[in-house]
Amino acid sequence: MKRFFATLLSGFVLLGCQTEPTKDPSNHIHKVYGKWLTETNGETILNPQSSGLTVVNGKLVTLSDRSAHPSQRLKLRSINPKTTKLEGPDYPIQLSEAAKQSCFADYVADNPDLEALVVDPSNNKVFYTVTEDASYQPDMPPSCQQRFKDSGATDYPRLLVKMQVTDNKIALVTHIKPLKFTPEMEIGNFPNDGIEGLVFGKNHVLYLGVERDIQKRPRIFSLQLSEQFWANDDFATVSEVDVQLPKFKSGNHPVNGMAYIERKNGSEYLLLAARNDQELWVTDLSGDTPTKIVPLEFYAEIVNGTGVCKDFEPMDNSSIEGLAVIDNTLWMINDPWKAVYLNNIRCPQNKLNYRNFASLLFGLTIQDNWFTAN
Question: What values do phi and psi take at 68, rounded to 5?
Fold first, then answer.
């Protein structure tokens, strides 16, 4: 789901919620400056449709969805956040012999719609991603259709995919597990409005951010990834996380990226990218306090600029889809939204970058007052 929020500077009007969402106490719009992601040859990255971000050994790792340029698909790509260069290593995604026996092997092997990325907190060679739109996929064999006919959401189940990086730098898919929602969760059958955030909290709990349900509400769910989780390829039923997300009377207000942060006092929060609203949502995982809303204003780097087109220019639409935390910095990567990305064109220096749907990397210092009550 990709809906454009009219303009960056028109204000941030909330239309209703269970308790009035808590704005940043300073009522300050944070200006966020992004630099273009570049390949080792200095060229900006070509149409990556970046859909996830995680941290490994001080580097950021990202992946692309199915609408990306073919050169970007089915691989994990490493970014040096200090230089915003894709310096490697890159890890092509391939299926293991065991994964090839899965009912979902044909889909995962053939340009799946991958959304979100997270590294295992206990093994930095293990990654997880999740699939979204499979409405274009041919039917599975009848036995598989019967077995996985009721996901509680889309006709073709959403899949949690586990990958292990091998010594020869392959991201080998070792396990594929379909996800199940109960009818009471009211997720609905929306193929392109699925899970767009994955992040681990304490005790190997995996949190999943869903863009929307049948009432257009963003939702947070979880899975406990125990040692037995991957013992079979049956459905894994998610659990709802009881947090106070904003509610709205109208419009589309999805969450499209997610990061986890634990404060010094042990309190846990999710940082959520509300991309339609150009906001960061700071969500208390205990459920005790309402989500705090931090308005954001995005700017794109200008290389070799002059006059009014110097250093950075404001963006009409950023479309953040990946979040990750390194020390006290929140890193954000955008998924260029093809329907509106060209609306960003103002300065001639960036025209080609926008036309190539190049991504930017944004850094924002984490503020203590995001986690305090008014």
Answer: -75, 165
pLDDT tens-digit readout, 198-252:
999 999 999 999 999 999 999 999 999 998 999 999 999 999 999 999 988 888 9
Cβ proximity of 157 and 151 under 8 Å = yes
What single DSSP character describes residue 85? Answer: B
Supply the pTM of this predicted model: 0.92
Mean per-residue pLDDT pooled into runs of 10, the chain (374 residues): 36 32 63 97 96 97 97 98 96 98 96 97 98 92 94 96 97 98 96 95 97 95 95 97 93 94 96 94 97 97 94 96 97 95 97 98 96 78
User: Cα 220–106–54 angle (5° rounding)?
Assistant: 40
Q: What is the C-alpha end-to-end distance of the chain, expressed in Å?
A: 33
Amino acid at 232: N
How is residue 329 written in tokens?
Answer: 């910095």
HEC states along the chain? Answer: CCCCCCCCCCCCCCCCCCCCCEECCCCCCEEEEEEECECCCCCECCCCCEEEEEEECCEEEEEECCCCCHHHCCEEEEEECCCCECCCCCEEEEECCCHHHCCCHHHHHCCCCEEEEEEECCEEEEEEEEECCCCCCCCCCHHHHHHCCCCCCCCCCCEEEEEEECCCCCEEEEEEEEEECCHHHCCCCCCCCCEEEEEECHHHEEEEEECCCCCCCCEEEEEECCCCHHHCCCCEECEECCCCCCCCCCCCCCCCCEEEEECCCCCEEEEEEEHHHCEEEEEECCCCCCCEEEEEEEEEECCCCECCECCEEECCCCCEEEEEEECCEEEEEECCCCCCHHHHCCCHHHHHHHHCCCCEEEEEECCHHHHCCC
